[in-house]
Design a protein that fits this description.
The complex is a heterodimer of chains A (about 400) and B (about 180).
Chain A lengths: L15 H26 L1 H32 L2 H5 L1 H8 L2 H7 L1 H8 L16 H13 L3 H28 L9 H26 L12 H24 L5 H4 L2 H32 L2 H11 L3 H20 L2 H5 L1 H23 L11 H24 L11 H4 L10
Helix pairs in contact in A: 1-2, 1-17, 2-4, 2-9, 2-10, 2-16, 2-17, 4-17, 8-9, 9-10, 10-12, 10-16, 12-14, 14-16
Chain B lengths: L5 E8 L2 H13 L5 E4 L7 H4 L6 H28 L12 H27 L23 E6 L7 H9 L5 E6 L1
Helix pairs in contact in B: 3-4
Classes of the chains: A mainly alpha (about 400), B alpha+beta (about 180).
Chain lengths: ~400, ~180
């Protein structure tokens, strides 16, 4: 089935997309040069910051893939209007696979991951005993690399299938791929849940190899989908100044995006509070260390800041219906939340390396450098395809919004 | 209390789109006290008749806050005042342990406020409603769409409003006795 697009509707993205891609590349290059200098001067600080930046931008890409798969399963105009934005973010997964190489270098050079060091270099006796077992079974250098290859293979495969079939629907008379999308998205979401949980354990939780939390994978997962929805809101706001987004984006769709932000913010708080409550109630030496680190030595201020400004205040604001329906207002909160995602990851990752609050130049520069390259690639992807798959059956939900055809309701 | 013998004037339409358009025109023409009836929910219709969403959200918010406070204070009173019990060596007033119940009570009170508030603001239960005095109105739950201008509206006048509604090309226009 194919739907004739509305008269004079040009779904191609505006030329401004290319300009932003170029400027992002310049930002990436400039900050990249500084990052390289920092990498030579103080490699340990560089790799910590690199992990932070990598996790932040990986979150936007994988979260976008997850939201896209949710849309394929549930349908809805809210998802069609941002489908190509999510798709462009998802198709940055190959770039992220390349950007992962420095993390392998970090492990090979015995940096940031304490389990990667030779055991006789570890002075803490308990930790050494603990590591004697786990570095033989799970936390091995080759295991770290092979598992990473496996995660990226799965993410790339999902991204390839979803975008390949989506591209097919960009010409008149193309076959309806809805069933294919559904067939991949169901298992794809489950695969995403498992792979990101293992990746979170490998890349972040293993920084403190004696600490365990079974909900940690979900904490990372929900942060990723929250980042992705906020990022989509920011991009749709930029595109709203131009055709075709100005014709596609209605307050009803923006309202739905705001509802998603509210839902993800609440689930983020739910997962984080669950982790905190279980560890606090158990009060076991092997678990409570995580929060002892993060609530003392000045880190506690960051923790409190995250509770108030990553949850309480955004939650209160997002309860407002008029706020959620106005893209010009919602974009500010979305930008703020994206910044708070960075602060949250900072609070998760950095206390592993210092007992007192410590922020380095690299913590700021390196995430911006990665972000510059990532955004350049994202906007390049965004410019490559129409902003709306007009010949896909789902496009009707954007081209002819429901209340013009209430008899179909 | 003396009631107006006429409750309003009601127009009957064939399709949801006709009703939405008619509601739009009527509201634009300056009629404030209007209502619409349809066999199924129609997206955007509430906005067209100038419906405001203020009361229910406020009721739910107040309900939620009252519920949260009730939940927290109830636990504080039980655990720290009425029957202090040492659990795992933790302080009597251990706020993390109270959060779940506080949250659940917030949801419970907010949910109950939503239902009761909805009933109250709709004036339910309502054993008598004048619109049913119009025989044709029974098809509002089948396949017809109705728009009513209440006689309490400032712009209402029996002849003029009837003429206005007739200009919207309805299927029929009837006066609704109260």
């Amino acid at each position: 089935m194919s739907t004739a697009p509305a008269k004079q509707f040009d779904p191609m993205p505006p030329p401004v997309v290319k300009t932003i891609a170029q400027r992002s590349l310049i930002v990436g290059a400039v900050f990249g040069i500084v990052a390289v200098i920092l990498a030579i001067k103080s490699p340990d600080e560089f790799f910590r910051a690199y992990l932070l930046g990598f996790m932040a931008w990986l979150g936007v890409a994988l979260g976008s893939m997850a939201i896209l798969m949710i849309r394929h399963l549930t349908g809805g105009g809210w998802g069609v209007v941002i489908r190509r934005i999510l798709g462009a973010a998802m198709r940055t997964v190959p770039l992220l696979a390349v950007l992962f190489i420095p993390m392998i270098v970090a492990v090979l050079q015995h940096r940031i991951y304490i389990w990667a060091k030779p055991l006789d270099q570890i002075t803490d006796k308990h930790l050494r005993e603990h590591l004697e077992d786990i570095t033989k079974t799970y936390l091995t250098t080759s295991g770290f690399i092979w598992r990473a290859i496996f995660y990226f293979a799965i993410w790339n495969l999902l991204s390839f299938l979803l975008s390949h079939w989506s591209k097919q629907t960009d010409r008149a008379g193309a076959r309806d791929n809805t069933d294919r999308f559904k067939a991949v998205s169901g298992p794809g979401l489950i695969l995403y849940g498992f792979t990101i949980s293992f990746a979170a354990v490998d890349w972040v939780m293993s920084l403190d190899p004696s600490w365990i939390s079974t909900i940690f994978g979900l904490v990372v997962l929900i942060g990723e989908v929250l980042s992705a929805m906020c990022f989509a809101v920011i991009v749709e706001r930029i595109l709203y100044n131009y055709k075709p987004m100005s014709e596609m984006l209605t307050p009803d769709f923006v309202h739905d995006h705001g509802k998603w932000m509210l839902a993800f913010t609440m689930v983020w708080a739910y997962f984080n509070f669950s982790q905190w409550l279980i560890i606090w109630a158990g009060n076991l030496p092997s678990e409570i260390t995580y929060y002892m680190r993060r609530l003392n030595g000045g880190w506690g201020y960051i923790g409190l800041f995250v509770v108030i400004f990553h949850f309480a205040v955004p939650f209160g604001i997002l309860l407002s219906r008029p706020f959620k329906r106005d893209i010009r207002k919602l974009v500010w909160l979305a930008s703020w939340m994206l910044l708070m995602r960075y602060v949250d990851l900072f609070w998760i990752i950095e206390p592993n390396f210092s007992k007192t609050l410590n922020i380095t130049l690299a913590d700021v520069v390196v995430p911006i450098a990665i972000g510059g390259f990532w955004l350049a690639y994202f906007f390049r992807n965004l410019g490559a395809l129409p902003l709306l798959p007009v010949y896909d059956p789902s496009a009707i939900e954007v081209l002819h919004p429901a209340h013009h055809h209430p008899e179909n309701a | 209390m003396k009631r107006d013998p006429i409750y309003g004037i009601m127009a009957e339409f064939d399709s949801a789109q006709a009703l939405v358009d008619a509601a739009h025109t009527t509201h634009q023409a300056g009629y404030q006290k209007i209502d619409a009836y349809s066999p199924f929910p129609i997206e955007g219709l509430a906005e067209e008749i100038g419906f405001h969403f203020d009361e229910i959200p406020l009721t739910v918010l107040i309900g939620g806050i009252v519920g949260g406070l009730t939940g927290y204070l109830m636990q504080y009173w039980m655990s720290a005042v009425d029957y202090p019990l040492n659990i795992g060596g933790k302080p009597y007033h251990s706020w993390p342990a109270f959060i779940i119940i506080t949250f659940e009570m917030t949801i419970l009170f907010a949910g109950i406020s939503a239902v009761l508030g909805m009933l109250a603001f709709n004036g339910l239960p309502m054993p008598y409603h004048p619109v049913f005095n119009v025989p044709r109105f029974s098809s509002a739950s089948k396949d017809r769409f109705f728009l009513i201008v209440f006689s309490s509206d400032k712009k209402y006048d029996p002849a003029g409003t009837r003429k206005f509604l007739e200009a919207l090309s309805p299927r029929s226009v009837s006066e609704v006795p109260s």
